[in-house]
Each structure stands twice: as C-alpha cells, then as structure tokens.
Amino acid sequence: MLLNCYQEELLEAGCDEAGRGCLAGPVFAAAVILPKGFVLEGLNDSKQLSHDQRTLLRPIIEQEALAWAVASCDHEEIDRINILNASFLAMHRAIEKLHTQPQYLVIDGNRFKTYPQIPHSCIVKGDGKYLNIAAASILAKTHRDEYMANLHADYPHYNWMQNKGYPTTAHRRAVIEIGLSPFHRKTFNVSDPQLDLFSKNA
C-alpha cells in the first residue's frame, strides 16, 4: 500500500516525469500536492496501470489535489541540453507553476537538480511507494499521451497514437523508411538498424 507522503512536517509535493525514453516529442513532468489523509482506490505508479485506469484517475487527482501542475521541455530543448537536464527543467517548471508553494519535494528517481530554496529527497521507484509521486506520474503520463495523440493526426505514419513516441520496432522502421519528423529528437539514435533488439516493444 502506498504512503501518503515521505515526511509529514512540511507541505510536500511529489514530482515525476514521462517520456524520457521516447524518440520523439517533449518530456513532460508533473508536481502534485495531496491533502493529508488522501485516499484514492487504484492510485499507483502509472506504468502499472492501463490507459483506461489512468484516464479515470486523472480528473479525480486534478480535482482533489491541493495543487497540481504539468510542464514540459520540447524536443529542441532536449537536443540542446540533453534528456536528463530537460527532465529536471520540466520538473522545475511544474513546481514553479504550482499555485501553492511546497516546502519539500520528493522526486521519483535517484537524481535531481536542486530547486531553489526547497529541500528534496530522491526516491528510487518512488511512484510505487508514495501517493503524491504516483499522482504526479499519472498526470505527466496522461498529459503527454494526449499531446502525442494530437500530433498523430498530422504525422500518422509514425503511429504516435499507439506508441506515444517510444522506440517500438514499427516506429523505428517508419523513421528509416520515411525519415525524421520535425518532432523527433535528433540526438537520439532513432534509426538503429538492429530492429530485432526492439521487437519486444512493438
């Protein structure tokens, strides 16, 4: 069972990102402050949930959170500053957008660039341990998926509606056959010819 928060003395925001491993599109991040005693059946790491489950949970989180925000770094920023720094920047942007300033941050993962004047802790697999990080993971994932689904209408050959920009065999093959879209990350190894290595993701 997930815990409400990492510590109880300070007002805490959970932070997570989505899209780090994608070949195309932005990386999204979310920051969420939940009320004490918050309970939501089914809330878990977004990767453990189906699309339908995430879709049902998102509006409840957005309605009941004390504060939430979603932000992103686009593919050009990712190419310029690298995906790790872009992930940190997207989280910083999400934190900055919160209408309630947190006093403490919990970050999913093992690294983070300190946000000015707010202490933090990095929690490996934190989205499966704390509700506020799990909530952030769902918001980041659903907002990004929605963004990629909208892009799909203009670039249907890459099937972003289904793969959301992740490196499936079909996605890589489309890049080899058609070329890069304006939204692909040019510093990523998009057109690796060893497609069989990625067949499990197809």
TrEMBL record:
EC annotation from Swiss-Prot or TrEMBL: 3.1.26.4
First-level EC class: hydrolase
Molecular function via GO: manganese ion binding; RNA binding; RNA-DNA hybrid ribonuclease activity
Key words of the record: Cytoplasm, Endonuclease, Hydrolase, Manganese, Metal-binding, Nuclease
A GO BP annotation: DNA replication, removal of RNA primer
Pfam family membership, one: RNase_HII
Reactions it catalyzes: Endonucleolytic cleavage to 5'-phosphomonoester
GO-annotated cellular components: cytoplasm; ribonuclease H2 complex
SUPFAM superfamilies named among the record's database cross-references: Ribonuclease H-like (SSF53098)
Domain RNase H type-2, first and last residues per copy: 10-200
Cofactor note: Manganese or magnesium. Binds 1 divalent metal ion per monomer in the absence of substrate. May bind a second metal ion after substrate binding.
Main subcellular localisation: cytoplasm
Compartment(s) of residence: Cytoplasm
Cofactor (UniProt): Mg(2+); Mn(2+)
Keyword Signal: no
Role noted for this protein: Endonuclease that specifically degrades the RNA of RNA-DNA hybrids.
Family as reported in the entry's similarity comment: Belongs to the RNase HII family.
Listed name of the protein: Ribonuclease HII
Species name: Pedobacter miscanthi
